[in-house]
Records
---
Amino acid sequence: MKTILFDVDGVLADFVLGFTKLLTPNPFGTRENTCAWNFKDTFSIIDIESAWRIVEKSIDWWTTLNRLTSLDTFERINRLHDYHTVVFGTHRKGTPSAQGQTHVWLQAQGIENPNVICTKYKGEAAKVIQAHYAIDDKPENCMAIKWMTDDTKVPTKTYILDSLTNRVTLPKAIRRVQTVDEFLDDVEAGR
């Protein structure tokens, strides 16, 4: 039995599209996004803070996001529950509401009884849950996961989902994949 940690926004859910819909009449999706992670190089701080207030006050905003992978991919993730522990880690604001909304969103994608943790400390989370595998789209999270788990009994095999925003040099131990299915191939094969 393995423990697999999935990031949600930028890996499974299109946060960028949903958030930029609050900021502009011409939103852009994750795969097209070339702005900074915090949007401050593209939008005003006032507009960003206003959008965050909408998100934080909403009882269902996180449930409205588009998925970035197919339902077939979500079915593969759901099947992992038969033999492994699957955890969805996210740094969504508005917890505990964000946690419940994430749970609802994952169920709508076909994930039965999803384990959701809301934290910005992905490295610490991977260490605590003793993750064997982890996938994220943010280089800093991947580095933290690798760094926090390198000295553990079972270091986490860390993957970064490739996008225009994360093309930085990373240690060779962090594997870059083009799709979540490529990550799942490695998990299923035990690589």
---
Amino acid sequence: MLMIEVDGLGSSFSSTRHLRVVTPGTARLRRHATSTWGLHGVTFSIQRGQGTALIGRSGSGKTTLVRVLAGVFSPDRGTV
């Protein structure tokens, strides 16, 4: 029996130089934000009772994946 099934998962983020301060000047900068994929095309399945580990370099999307699985972030593509 499948416990978790992820198919084509993708999650993107918009980034600007000024994320914390919201003023009319920074609001203009936010229109020029760049988009980066935190996760792109992730597919896997985990069976009930199966052990799983997330291993990767800093910035590889481990925390983003856990947050999507927990429902903290919504995926921009794919299904969980």
